[in-house]
Amino acid sequence: MNIGIDKMGFYTPHLVLDMTDLAHARGDDPDKYHIGIGQSEMAVVPPTQDVVTMAANAANQIIDESDKQAIDLILFATESGVDNSKSGAVYVQRLLGLTEHTRAIEVKQACYSATAALQLAKDYIAAHPQRKALVLASDVARYGLHTPGEITQGAGAVAMVVSANPQILAISDQSTYLTQDVMDFWRPIYATEARVDGHFSANIYVDFFTNVWTRFKKTYGVDVTDFDAMLFHLPFSKMGLKALRTVLPADETVASRLTDNFESARLWNRHVGNLYTGSLYLSLLSLLANGTLADNAQLGLFSYGSGAEGEFYTATVQPNYRNGFDQVKIESLLNARQQVSVGEYEQLFSDQLPTDGSTKKLDIAADPAHFVLAGIDNEQRQYQAH
Fold this sequence. Notes:
Helix 1 packs across helix 2 and helix 3 runs parallel beside helix 5. 35% of the residues lie in helices and 27% in strands.
């Protein structure tokens, strides 16, 4: 029985910043952003969106009535949670109208947790093949204005329905993983911006990829030439390219195939920025939409979360994979975004919701999303459809 990703949805806020504008404002050469880190645009989050609304909007793109009846496990992967106790999955369950007879929990380990959630969902479906699971990867990447990490910010959510006999991707049982206590990136409970040692984190990322990939090859007797595409967690799109270059073979045909598919896989990430938990899976979605994949194409996927945890696993593209996502809707979402100035971006970045228990009502009229955050009342976030 094949188990894997049956449907995929994606959402990012309706505001976006051109990286050329940011480069000029920071006194940098735009090539440092466009080529050096491989980013063209950055998603900007209005106060009416957070990880819950983004996850709900992504899932709403793909969930139908049959899904609502079959989904009884919701796994919400994020490192930008809105509550230290209540999971984002519980809010999403209500917003989407999913059955109350479900498990709804939040999963955390930096950017890796969506892969952990996906593997947990796969195991659940193996035991309950008539059911479905909803995996949500939703985050807001924040490093602070005028910081080295500023140019790798972003926001968005990827939603995945996991089932038996999936339309998009069958996930194999082959994987290798690694965990080490490394302080390359973290965010204290009291902070709204992450702490990161950029160069150290980039080196750890490549080290973890080398470790799990080498172990995978030895354990399962495969080589890079066995894959049609290699996918990577993309905190910025140049990062994955650095890792790919460490394994490109001498065979020019294979190297060209892997490189071309990588370019297709990072296309949408270039225009959104860092999704943390969702970065690998937006890259997967971008490859499916923009690449050229034959039936049964073999994919290798590297997931990484600072702190640190990594995993390499494989999956097989299914014959009708394009039926599992709405490319037109996603491209329309990206193309319809409103450009903001650097000043507007800085104001939105600084205008955070109150943390002192006070009430705040938000103007939702300008937000075109279906699900929005209307404010905070009695220390409770007010989510609604609109």
